Amino acid sequence: MELKIENMTCGGCAKSVTKVIQSVDPNARIETNPATGMVKVETTATPAALQGVLEEAGYPATMS
Fold it and tell me: Looking at the domain assignment, is residue 29 inside a domain?
């Protein structure tokens, strides 16, 4: 799935987003691009679960 995270603007943000996603699915494959705010995720977690934890962490995401 692809997520758009508007306020992921740097490498530090990308690391935080990665940690948040891995808190739901430690085996998730994650590719972040802070320049575009896009995150590609291969996971068994539901989109709703990811969006929920990302929002709690201050990184609201929309499906792309």
Answer: yes
- For residues 25 and 11, give the distance between their C-alpha atoms in angstroms, rounded to a whole number: 21
Overall residue count recorded for the chain in this entry: 64
CB 6 within 8 A of CB 60: yes
Q: Count of domains in the chain?
A: 1
CATH number at residue 35: 3.30.70.100
For the question of whether the overall pTM of this predicted structure is more than 0.90, the answer is: yes
Domain hosting 16: range is 9-57
One pLDDT digit (tens) per residue for the chain, 64 residues? 999 999 999 999 999 999 999 999 999 999 999 999 999 999 999 999 999 999 999 999 999 8
